[in-house]
Amino acid sequence: MEVEALPGLTPEGDDQSQKDQHINIRISTADKKLVEEKAAEAGLKTGEFMRRAALGRKITSKIPPDFRRILAATGSNLNQLTRLANAGKLTSTSAQTLNELLSRLLETLK
């Protein structure tokens, strides 16, 4: 969910400002659970999630640990193959591996 930021409000990067005001709202049990789940998916506390949503700030989901591990391993392999290519030591087998890694990476990111 991305909404254009409203003019005159705290800039997006200014999360260090003192939060000394409260807003109380009534919400159904089902809606509260949904908000808490979405906040957890984004790796945010509920209050921060609500602030970002209300102020039109970008909210993104955090990357799951298993996907982060796969992405890091793929990046390491790509880096090693790129070094071989730059050194002129890339064999046809290495080039094929590079193409396979790139294909897997693109498929995973879809």
Folded structure, characterized:
- The protein has 110 residues and is mainly α.
- It has 2 domains: 1-62, no CATH class; 65-109.
- Helices cover 57% and strands 0% of the residues.
- The protein contains 4 helices and no strands.
- The two termini are 19 Å apart.
- The mean pLDDT is 80.
- Which residues sit in consecutive blocks of at least 5 with pLDDT less than 50? none
Mean pLDDT score, rounded?
80
Can you tell me the number of structural domains?
2
Residue fraction in strands: under 5%
From the spread of the alpha carbons, the general shape counts as: elongated
Q: Structural class per helix/strand content?
A: mainly alpha
User: How many strands, which pairing sense, and closed or not: the largest β-sheet?
Assistant: none
N-to-C series of helices and strands: HHHH
Helices, by number, come to: 4
Radius of gyration: 22 Å
Report the strand count: 0
Separation, N- and C-terminal Cα atoms: 19 Å
- Percent of residues in helices comes to 55-70%
What does the secondary structure layout of this molecule look like, with pairings?
Elements: H1 29-42, H2 46-54, H3 65-86, H4 92-109
Helix pairs in contact: 1-2, 3-4
Task: Describe the structure in brief.
The chain has 110 residues and is mainly alpha-helical. The chain contains four helices and no strands.
